[in-house]
From TrEMBL:
PANTHER family: PROTEIN FAM234A, PTHR21419. The chain crosses the membrane at residues 44-64. Residues 76-543 form the FAM234A/B beta-propeller domain. The keyword Transferase does not apply. It comes from the Eukaryota. The keyword Metal-binding does not apply. SUPFAM superfamilies: Quinoprotein alcohol dehydrogenase-like (SSF50998). GO terms for cellular component: membrane. Keywords: Membrane, Transmembrane, Transmembrane helix. This is Family with sequence similarity 234 member A. Pfam families: Beta-prop_FAM234A_B (PF23727). It is found in: Membrane.
Amino acid sequence: MTDESGRGGEAEPLKDGEAEGGVTKEKSCAGKLGLSHLTGWRTAAFLLSIFLCLAVIFAFSFILPCPVRPQYVSTWNRTVPDAATFDFLAVEDANEDKVLDVFFIYRDADASRNTCLNADLSVPCLVLTAVDGTNGKSLWKRALSAEFDWVECGVKGLGHKGSGCLVAHADNLTAVDKKTGQIMWQHSRSTLMHGNLPLISVPDLNSDGKEDFAVLSYNPDALSFTPTPTELVFFSGKSGDQLGSRVNVDVNGVFAHLHFKTASGASYLLLLTDSGLYAVSLGRLAALAKPGFESALKKEKSWEELSDIHTGFISLYQSGFLKRVLAVQGSNPPSLLIQTDSSVSLLQTDKLKTAWTTNTSTLLSEPTFGQFDKDGIPDIMIEEDAGNQTKRVMVLSGHSGVVLWEVSLLFWPPSPRPASVLTLNTYSVFMLWGQTNQTSQMQSSFLLHPRYSKLLLERRKSSQNIVSFKATLLERGRHASYLVLTGPDGRRHTDDSEPVILTKRKIKKDVEESEVYGVTADELISQDAEDSVREAFHRLRFSEIQ
Ligand SMILES: *[C@@H]1O[C@H](CO)[C@@H](O)[C@H](O)[C@H]1NC(C)=O
Ligand SMILES: *[C@@H]1O[C@H](CO)[C@@H](O)[C@H](O)[C@H]1NC(C)=O
Ligand SMILES: *[C@@H]1O[C@H](CO)[C@@H](O)[C@H](O)[C@H]1NC(C)=O
Ligand SMILES: *[C@@H]1O[C@H](CO)[C@@H](O)[C@H](O)[C@H]1NC(C)=O
Ligand SMILES: *[C@@H]1O[C@H](CO)[C@@H](O)[C@H](O)[C@H]1NC(C)=O
């Protein structure tokens, strides 16, 4: 009854009081008053909602400007004549346009003469620079005294906002603001000559409102005649001042390290030594630097139960042939990939158990993680040296370590390591380098789509000395690109007589400019298969920045 009269009122609002009213009058006079009241309210609500809709439409079309999506050039390059560069590429948003910008460093005598002299530096000097990710234009340049040791960008606590770059060069440690390129602080690193990357970021230890960091000092060259103690030194991100005292990390034969966070967020320092892999809680080391520092750093209970009572060290993996340890990107619970002379293994860090081990020959490059199969567990791309200037590129299942895919390619060192970019379809596309023609010196990049894995898209390039390579998204969920830095390698060459070129290319742009290459050599490639793999690449939608 209520429903019906309500509907009638909306359909024929004028009739309500007259004809219909006459018939229903006697049925219920009391109910009638309440109902017409309700109808009035409905009409008012209806008009109000129309008004609100129009107001919103009006506001969005005329008053509020649409969010401007940054326009980008699909391919750009930046050339520095007569310079030398280093294996370093970082992407960070420097100019706050939501597109990541590119940081690289070079040594230059000529083109940057004024840049060096203006900064009161002798020539040649180092130039750390940021270029706009959208078009390759220079955002800032920072001249620094040579010699170059290392640089890391994205270091939290440095700079006015967010993060900055830390450069170890000549006798100094210099913090550079990522937005302006200004020097935030500069300190002598005389006590830290053996400081090694990666930096260990820690929460704000000295309560100055900025994150802090630590540097681990050791001599990775095991044959050195003057043994260097392994020491950890904490620094203030804001001022660069040393925090607390130096901590002696009492373990022999350290040649590499990494900072690892367990599933519960506990921070551990992992040490690769000539007898195996060890972990020690960062909180324990921080407390040795200054009592109280440990309060911001959690410990993992199950790990601590296994630690040595006196030293706090936890033995994670014993091997005299350890080469490299990587935290598996995107694995849950977090796991570690352990590479030795002749194998790779996956260590599950929650149970501290080895899930699988796969035998390999010498690996040519650092393994790359990406989703190849459909199980959601990150898979691993490795490059094995097969002798005779041939490499075998393989994808190992992250679940079982079995070989899911492989291809043999020619290569001439140095050949950049593979890269991957995650798509929205939960698989990654992979990019690798190699040669397919024995007689030509052309270097090719290859794109691999896991759902069309019998084919690769090959793009031939003239042979260049690639010093650094990175594939990444430059914006959230879009703008999948790769960066190639070519030129003389500053660590090997002393004469800087060739151009250093940074090139950015959109990955999808390579699809049109490439040829199809069959993974198994004698396979016939139909036009249909070729079209469908190109089409699959064009359809790709990318996931978040990893
Ligand atoms: C750099 O870009 C310009 C135009 O954008 C192009 O003409 C030139 O060939 C490019 N250089 C290299 C080395 O790719
Ligand atoms: C090191 O830093 C100090 C302090 O800023 C500065 O005076 C000195 O010139 C720097 N030395 C070099 C070689 O850059
Ligand atoms: C891997 O290498 C080890 C030691 O050389 C050997 O015992 C084992 O059988 C190998 N496994 C496979 C699957 O080849
Ligand atoms: C290396 O490759 C060349 C050309 O394919 C071949 O002639 C030669 O026999 C190979 N050598 C070895 C040791 O496999
Ligand atoms: C390999 O390169 C040489 C020299 O550039 C060329 O003559 C030859 O046709 C190429 N071979 C193939 C299979 O592409």
